[in-house]
User: Fold these one by one.
Assistant:
Number 1:
Amino acid sequence: KNEVEQSPQNLTAQEGEFITINCSYSVGISALHWLQQHPGGGIVSLFMLSSGKKKHGRLIATINIQEKHSSLHITASHPRDSAVYICAVGAGNQFYFGTGTSLTVIP
Amino acid sequence: DAGITQSPRHKVTETGTPVTLRCHQTENHRYMYWYRQDPGHGLRLIHYSYGVKDTDKGEVSDGYSVSRSKTEDFLLTLESATSSQTSVYFCAISQPGQGAQNIQYFGAGTRLSVL
């Protein structure tokens, strides 16, 4: 049983394309997180949100609490955006993670 | 970058041997976590700590133990390593006071191979 489901699993885009990654969850959460894992393995936090929408540069994250769904959008994608994007939800003292979306942006 | 150091970064060991991984933080964060990452699975929680000497089991705790005798150090021990414990292990920390709501900061990971 996966508390967090992401789609798509793999995504290839041309440079400049608008990209959307989706996340659905089944548990009650205190917050949802989007993480980025670089090809070298390091994991960094992109967003933490519990309602509405957040924007950071070309990245936009939205969440719909009622539908238990979040999306991560990348505008004007660039090859340096190539990474694995991971959705995680905080519930109690624990986190549950999706399996990640592997994004490749081709020049 | 949050001050989190995992050691060792890479380890190869034999089945049946004990292995200890160390996570050291300089941020004075209350919560510390050990995860494993395997192909086809998301990060899965092994154990976490919510304070010195306060730990709890996660989703995949069998075969692992932890200790936290100081705020800055969280040790993960494989008492008798098995091939199924071959994985990449990540330590994470989160800000004090608000538990799971807080952003987690991750260490660089330890790649463990059990032969």
Number 2:
Amino acid sequence: GNSVTQMEGPVTLSEEAFLTINCTYTATGYPSLFWYVQYPGEGLQLLLKATKADDKGSNKGFEATYRKETTSFHLEKGSVQVSDSAVYFCALSMRGSTLGRLYFGRGTQLTVWP
Amino acid sequence: EAGVAQSPRYKIIEKRQSVAFWCNPISGHATLYWYQQILGQGPKLLIQFQNNGVVDDSQLPKDRFSAERLKGVDSTLKIQPAKLEDSAVYLCASSSSWGQANEKLFFGSGTQLSVL
């Protein structure tokens, strides 16, 4: 089946530290990959996406590269800010499917201290 | 543009009671989803509508959960009777495309349900 595995949280960093949140996936076909972010009290928002192998999604200083050979889509940011504190979800959706259903990982809580 | 609206924000009920959640998607969005997010887990799809028709309800516990999307706009999700394990955040999402794999979903803030 289709599933996403994320690194266990919570992750606590000091401001300006480097961030990596690991994400690996299992899929029956050729998925599109996403990172969604949920800030306190808000709904999930799309952070970035990649639709084919070797694509790099980027937004707000965050990046993730679609690695088909390692079935991974790790999220990185070179210098985190306090405002990046949130829960980050890795997700996939199957290409060629007309359903658009997202399969989510369990989420990783990030807390950034000043 | 206005986002996805959900109500209520919080709901506390006793087991075996009934509860209903309401969602108003972004205007013009054809596709509407209900997800269940249990504490410590990622959201799980319960049901997907395309306009007012159901296209995927394979994960919906139909003995107690029901959902409708009359007129292809607002949607309600009902639980009757509720069980303790139904305690979760219920998320509504919508998208403008016809359920394509790389579409962007817009999520509401969710309804947090506690079943005592």
Number 3:
Amino acid sequence: AQTVTQSQPEMSVQEAETVTLSCTYDTSESNYYLFWYKQPPSRQMILVIRQEAYKQQNATENRFSVNFQKAAKSFSLKISDSQLGDTAMYFCAFMPQDGSGSRLTFGEGTQLTVNP
Amino acid sequence: GAVVSQHPSRVICKSGTSVKIECRSLDFQATTMFWYRQFPKKSLMLMATSNEGSKATYEQGVEKDKFLINHASLTLSTLTVTSAHPEDSSFYICSARQGNNSPLHFGNGTRLTVT
């Protein structure tokens, strides 16, 4: 079974600054995907970024980037130039690449608040 | 992009009644849909995996007779909470994917309140 751990229940950052959210995971799988999802107050789950474990290059999406350390089983999210609209709960998630079910395992979440 | 529609967004029902929640993939065929439950300020907890044309697979601890899941077509899955009790009050979210290892797309969720 996989586990995903987010050790920061809450974080805050000033607008325009950079913040990093931590995530570690435990698995015996060799092929898998990692995700960061954002859940704003509307409760809609929004995919922020996705990383394939076999890719060494860290994924980036505009202001969002990850630091993927496979050996350390670490998958942190960096948000640059934080905006007020980034305020949300952020979930790290793991999905094995075995095609058997694509079940996502979520971390407990980090509530990020961007202050003006 | 892929859109998943979940209906209703909010529902209030009385104890003992049943309520049905629909999850539709609007512009793609979803071979698999997932149902989650989320408590306030908590993570999403997978309840069951629904495959079109077959019985749902429930996670340990989830009562299959209480949470009935039907995936009758490639674009629709339903979750029926039977004989609802106040402790069933929660936020329920569905997600859908087109094929193995395809990205998951989430519905907007349903807030169920049982009085």
